[in-house]
Design brief:
mainly alpha
């Protein structure tokens, strides 16, 4: 079991979980937890951003697409955290690692 696994799993439970994971990983710092916290934080922020956009320009099918996109990527990342793998979520994962470098 890698160090920081509990922190990594916590990060996937809503944006609040990602913020809690940020504080959990302050001391000691774990690379595994940092990786998954960035992935989860990015997924949550992306979902919230698109949800705000769709709330202005409502299209029922776009909402379905957003939820399917989010749930599939969230599941991919969450299963990676549970199975001790540092696998980026498809398409956006490498960008999350670059953009959220403030997550230490």
């Amino acid at each position: 079991m890698p160090e920081g696994k509990n922190t990594a799993i916590t990060a996937y439970f809503t944006i609040v979980g990602a913020l809690i994971a940020l504080s959990m990983n302050m001391e000691p710092k774990h690379e595994f937890a940092r990786f998954h916290t960035r992935q989860a934080f990015g997924l949550h922020i992306t979902f919230l951003g698109f949800a705000l956009f769709l709330s202005q320009w409502f299209n029922e099918y776009a909402w379905y697409g957003l939820y399917v996109f989010y749930i599939v990527l969230w599941g991919y990342g969450f299963i990676g955290a549970i199975t001790d793998k540092k696998q980026s979520v498809p398409v956006l994962g490498p960008y999350f690692q670059k953009w959220f470098t403030f997550i230490q």
